[in-house]
Amino acid sequence: MLNTLLDNTATDLARHAYNAAFEELGLNWHWDAATYARLQATSQGTVRTYLETEQSHLLRAYEADFLVEAIEAAKARCHASMAANRATPAPYTVWSHQPLAPASRAPQNTPAPRFTPSALHT
Predict the structure, then answer these.
(1) pLDDT tens track for 59-117
(2) 92 Rama sector, left if φ>0, alpha if ψ -120 to 50, beta otherwise
């Protein structure tokens, strides 16, 4: 039972980190538990599968690898912040509105980079 609880907690934390990453990047996406479980059951990876099945229009403008890497990097930042703060998400928490834990190498007042289409043309 304890292993199941720990697995569910880790899964929920990862899912909430993805949702925070989507918010941080300006993507109007939200994965509920059922969506995340369905995506985890695929062999391609959660983000790539979601892009190809639910947001394929983005692949006409952006390379899949670019989008996946941007989302995974934002998710890693959000996950680290949540884990460092021992966050326990409430339902419908918008994690990107929570203060991030300062990174060890980055200045504390530096905001996380935002994904914008214009960033591709610089």
Answers:
(1) 999 999 999 999 999 999 999 998 888 766 555 555 555 555 555 554 455 555 555 55
(2) left
